[in-house]
Amino acid sequence: MAVDRVPRRVGVVGYGRLGQSLVSHLLTQGPELGLELAFVWNRDPGRMAGNVPLPLQLQDLNALGERRPDLVVEVAHPQIIHDSGAHILRHASLLVGSPSALADPATEHQLREASHRWGHAVFVARGALWGSEDITRLDAAGGLQSLRVTMATHPDGFRLEGPLAAASRTGPRTVLYEGPVRGLCPWAPRNSNTMAAAALAAPSLGFDHVVGVLVADDSLPDMHVVEVELSGPLGPSGRSFAVRTRRENPAERGAVTGSATVTAFWRSVLGCCQLPSKPGIHLC
Ligand SMILES: NC(=O)c1ccc[n+]([C@@H]2O[C@H](COP(=O)([O-])OP(=O)(O)OC[C@H]3O[C@@H](n4cnc5c(N)ncnc54)[C@H](O)[C@@H]3O)[C@@H](O)[C@H]2O)c1
């Protein structure tokens, strides 16, 4: 599959599990797909040494414009989106790998504003969210009444902050949070991305009405389980349309990203390279 409007220059921000995989794909498969690695930035540049060719290492994120990227992929931390999302959009379209950042209304506003000002798209990686297009379609048709996303894994797989970090566990399976996704994202910024993607896929419900549930489960040492439950309004028969999916994704012990999600991210990069750079937020 060759992408159109070649070549596309792609910058990668973050060189952890996802970043390393994307950089490797871009270096090995990019040329035949018309994609060129423009730069790699990581908070700790030492991590790139010996792995990323020196000319491709970017030392100062503020200087990314010099590398003339068409697309910048963020796979680091939501803080990067808060701090640098609008700046990135001045120079390129942005693929957000940490959409929990958009639970902050100021950040969402900044990104939308910069997107329209500079004519660049904000793409959001669907990541571990199964059925995102179906959710969006149902939502657009006015058929979505409720949406609930449950993410369960071993406690070692969580990076929790504030009150959630201090939450006591009551047994082998503990519900750490259940409520609006907006309230979860600040305290579980790296474990709420799937729920944030769901909130963006269903704008009629959004961050305030999509329900997120975070479960610490000792029986899932090497697995991320994401369940999506949705329903439509009551029909004339007194019953409503309902869907329930369960995604079991093998993951390395303690990792925030499961194996299948790494593949999904590469597909998102390819997907948004084929889309026009239309202002606004688009799931990819
Ligand atoms: N959308 C989804 O469904 C989904 C799924 C998995 C992961 N993610 C998100 O993608 C991002 C990357 O995931 P990963 O598995 O590669 O993580 P990782 O921990 O393996 O790597 C993260 C990288 O970002 C850097 N980093 C961490 N905090 C930072 C900060 N505050 N500022 C700048 N750099 C920072 C780290 O040094 C590391 O190089 C995370 O935010 C993760 O939550 C999203």
Key features?
Rossmann fold, Dihydrodipicolinate Reductase, domain 2, single chain, five-stranded mixed β-sheet, binds nicotinamide-adenine-dinucleotide, 9 helices, 32% helix, 26% strand, alpha/beta, 284 residues, six-stranded parallel β-sheet, 2 domains
Biggest sheet, in brief? 6 strands, parallel
Classified in CATH, the superfamily of the largest domain is NAD(P)-binding Rossmann-like Domain
What is the CATH topology descriptor of the largest domain? Rossmann fold
Summed up, the domain count is 2
Distance between the termini: 17 Å
Please, how many helices?
Answer: 9
* Helix-strand string: EHEEHEHEHEHEHHHEEEHE
| CATH class value of the largest domain | Alpha Beta
The distinct ligands, each listed once, are: nicotinamide-adenine-dinucleotide
Spatially, the strands of the biggest sheet line up as: 2-1-3-4-5-11
The number of E-state strands comes to 11
The shape is: globular
Strand proportion: 25-35%
Corresponding CATH architecture of the largest domain = 3-Layer(aba) Sandwich
Structural class: alpha/beta
Helical content stands at 25-40%
| Weakly predicted, low-confidence segments | none
Average residue-wise pLDDT: 93
